Amino acid sequence: MRKALSFICFFCLVFLSAQAQSVLQGRIMGRDSLPLAGVSIQNIHSKAVAVTNSEGIYSIAVNDQDTILFRALGYVTLALRAALVPRVLYLRSQAMDLHGVEIVQRSYLKDSLALREEYQKGFTFRRPKFGEVVKIIPLGIGININQLQKALSFKSNKRSDAFKERLINYEQDKFIDQRFTPELVANLTGLDGDSLRYFMDHHRPSFEFAREASQYDLLLFIKQSAEKYRRNAAVISQ
What we know:
The protein has helices at residues 2-20, 108-118, 120-124, 130-133, 145-152, 154-179, 182-189, 193-202, 207-212, 215-237; strands at residues 22-29, 40-43, 49-51, 57-62, 67-71, 78-81, 88-90, 134-137, 140-143. The protein has 238 residues and is of the alpha+beta class. This is Carboxypeptidase-like regulatory domain-containing protein.
């Protein structure tokens, strides 16, 4: 009898808990009352994370008493109880007091152009084509000695090929860094310190993805990678 009563009580608690949980839906607005895409919405209790789409719309499972954290680059982080979150939420821009310090924002495009200008020979290097070495002329065959010497400089060509490859890899890495930033990942995942560094090292997007993906695709990639990272961490800790 006691076991049956305990089972009924447990079932009622589970039922009430399920009933209390709901889906919080809304829209987040930013500067000039425009929809804000890429906002990270995190349920502190369940660790669930959602991201606003291009229209600033989101949905996330909550209980009324859960604390919901809203984070976006350039905006003040906001923590609200789920029951108090308005249908349309306006985030306040983050005030920046520079105290006379000049901040120079790094530009991937400027850095890339400067790199290519500085190492122009390395980027434009290629082995001479057959037609540049040997030319058919009316009196016979003409050979361009300079191009022939360049074509036969195997060690030099090999070094130049390797140097060009390193330059291109460096440029591509900088492009990824410009999109896949610690600030963006930290705001979206809530990770910091060693966990953030480990996550960024092991879930770094490819250059092709970083080049082709929209901002929403990138945010979704980070969110899904974070979920996979947390699942793996939970399995390891068991």
